Amino acid sequence: MKTKYAVALALLVGIGIGATVMQLLHMRKKSVVYFIAENEVTDPEGYRTQYLPTAQKLLKEHGARYLAQGKATQFAGDPPKGRVVILEWDSMEQARGWFESPEYQATRKIGEQFAKYRNFAIEGDAP
């Protein structure tokens, strides 16, 4: 009889541990922000030499992570004109902090001489 109780107790403890581990794994999945930039570059040389070095430095300083950059491949509808960049941030506040910073706003004014911008961000789950 004692063996039955021990097995039943062990089974219940195992189920409890498994449920706790699953809950902890689910809680680890964090939300991130994806920032998408569609940059229609009108002056590649000016963009490359006068805008990009400072913009990339500020992105790195503010915690952005590059996920992809380059020309888009069309599947449906009109493709973006020019360069597309996808960045990842830990939070919307972090992305806004970079975008609204005086340093980036000054850099952006320079960049607007060389490109037209369309930027947006979405929140999503990190893989």
Cα(first) to Cα(last) distance is 48 Å
Q: What is the total domain count? A: 1
Order of helices and strands: HEHEEHHE
Basic shape: elongated
Q: From the alpha-carbon coordinates, what is the Rg to the nearest angstrom?
A: 24 Å
Give the strand tally.
4
How many helices?
A: 4
- Structural class, by secondary structure, is alpha+beta
CATH topology grouping: Alpha-Beta Plaits
Mean pLDDT: 87
Low-confidence stretches: none
The portion of residues forming beta strands comes to 25-35%
User: Mind summarizing the main beta sheet?
Assistant: 4 strands, antiparallel
Second rung of CATH, namely the architecture: 2-Layer Sandwich
Q: What's the helical proportion of residues? A: 40-55%
Sequence of strands across the biggest β-sheet: 2-3-1-4
Determine and state the CATH class. Answer: Alpha Beta
